[in-house]
Amino acid sequence: MEIIETIVVDAPVAPTYAAFADLDRWPEILPDTVSVDVTYSDGYNQEFTMTVERPGGEETVAGFRYCRPPHQLELVQTTPPPVMTRMSGLWNFSQAPGGGTEVTAIRRFTLKSPGEGGPPMTEDEFAVTLRSVLRTNLGYFKETIEGG
Amino acid sequence: MAEQSWDAAEAQASVVAPPAEVADLFWNIRAWHAIWLKIDDVEVLYEDPVHQEFVMGVERDGRREDVRTIRFRQSGGDINFFSPRPPPTMTSHRGSWRFRADPAIVSACRVLARREYELRRNAHESEADFQQRRLDYRQQLAARLQAILNGFAGHFAAARPESQQDGTVTTCTERIVIHCSPESAGSFLRNIHNLPTWTGFFRSIGAPVGDRYEVTTAMGTKIQTRVEPDGTGGYAISSIVGEREERAEVAVTPVPVGVEVSFTVRMRAALADHVSRDPGSAPSTTADIQRARMREELDRLRSALSAG
Description:
The complex is a heterodimer.
Chain A: E1 2-9, H1 13-21, H2 26-29, E2 33-41, E3 45-54, E4 57-68, E5 72-79, E6 84-95, E7 101-111, H3 123-146
Antiparallel strand pairs in A: 1-7, 2-3, 3-4, 4-5, 5-6, 6-7
Chain B: E1 7-15, H1 19-27, E2 39-48, E3 51-60, E4 63-73, E5 79-85, E6 90-101, E7 109-119, H2 127-158, E8 169-178, H3 182-189, H4 195-198, E9 202-209, E10 212-217, E11 222-229, E12 235-241, E13 244-255, E14 258-268, H5 269-272, E15 275-276, E16 284-285, H6 286-307
Antiparallel strand pairs in B: 1-7, 2-3, 3-4, 4-5, 5-6, 6-7, 8-14, 9-10, 10-11, 11-12, 12-13, 13-14, 15-16
């Protein structure tokens, strides 16, 4: 299942990309992010673990990002959220036609079945929830970047 | 692209296969074992169509190294990677494999390999010595990359349809004398569950499937294998790999002090004659490397039979 959300940030591409690329800033930008531990970073590749608050308690995911500054970040979670078997995605950054930066976030995921620990809903239903979370998070980034 | 302290090494080679086919084989990390013989084993920790995480055990300068690597595959087949656990001589390691159509040769591909890395500085190493070692290492790494690319080029050359090659087969045979009875040697060799004890290729024996067993190879792949008596006191190890049968033969001949065991494999001459130039070593053919590996396996067989 793939979901896509887009937002326009009133800022140039480079600082917008930089805010998304800097995982150490995520806990100050996203209220549900408890902590991030970047275990490898060379400017282009990152390995990380991230703990977030969820209704059922804290969840820790782990994964890697491949950074193509300032236009794209690619993500794979080798330890995805507990309800999923797979989670990967992209952030694309481009100059918006009317000015600012268009940020497009893409997520591809596969849910576990309810019997394996997945949620009691279809992927289509889950996608609605995940899209809402993605939209909210993009909004937090927009607020932070535009606030300087 | 790289910061000041990163060094870089590059190599390239032409491969007689279309770029997409070559890129697919480079992405299939479990298949590398058959092509780059310095690999001891690969454990794939995560895999989806465009991402991989694996730990590869490789032999370098006579020592084993375990390197954990993450690979990202681009839509055109190019592969970028980095190693959160790099080779022990490095503090950082990343690189790429790029696949381009070769305008000089129809249905061929030019493979471009690049590594960027930071060498680990030894304690008490002078600046001059370190700089010299950086230069030397870059040359060695470029040669090693070239050897890997040559291995893939040789593989594709050997895999061309028989109508496009001479079909000559090279036989590799190694022998060893073991102080044990022909009966105990035969009993050990015909038991398929003993294969992981002495061979490097067969990792574990699974459940029976028809008249064969599902076997896990050192690369983590599953194949179907059986041990067949050849009627003269020897055995053939027969494996179904894809749509092909691959066979190795083990003959047991009584000698005054015990038995002589001979181990034989056959490979296409184009692959057997392919020359690898590994840094620090004399150039060696795939057949040479195969024979060295077979000698190690026969030594393990002797240890197993002696222990028994």
